Amino acid sequence: MINLHLYGLDSPRWRVPMPPMDHLADAEIAAVLNYMLAEFGGAEVGSGATPPFFPPEVAARRGAGLGPQEVGAQR
User: Fold this and answer.
1) H helical segments located in the chain
2) What is the Cα–Cα distance from 42 to 10, expressed in whole angstroms?
3) 5-24 confidence digits (pLDDT tens)
4) Rounded alpha-carbon distances, angstroms, from residue 46 to 25, 34, 70
């Protein structure tokens, strides 16, 4: 999920590519991901079953140089 937000997503499976959101701060991306997990993940974030995302995890993924097509292939 972090790569999806940092580098975007492009795949023949979806008709419209998702642009990267790397302009957001690490804390903002972590907050968006935690909201998505809480709202749509089916488990309470931080309950052990669904650990929360933290800004250092996002920071560690920056600079990987992935493109939207590579993220699509990973999914």
Assistant:
1) 2-7, 26-40, 55-61, 68-74
2) 26
3) 999 998 888 778 889 999 99
4) 21, 9, 29
Give Rg (Cα) of the chain.
13
pTM: 0.81
- How many distinct structural domains can be found in the chain? 1
CB 50 within 8 A of CB 43: yes
More confident residue, 7 or 40: 7
Residue 60 CB-half CA count within 13 A = 6
Domain of 47, CATH number, reads: 1.10.760.10
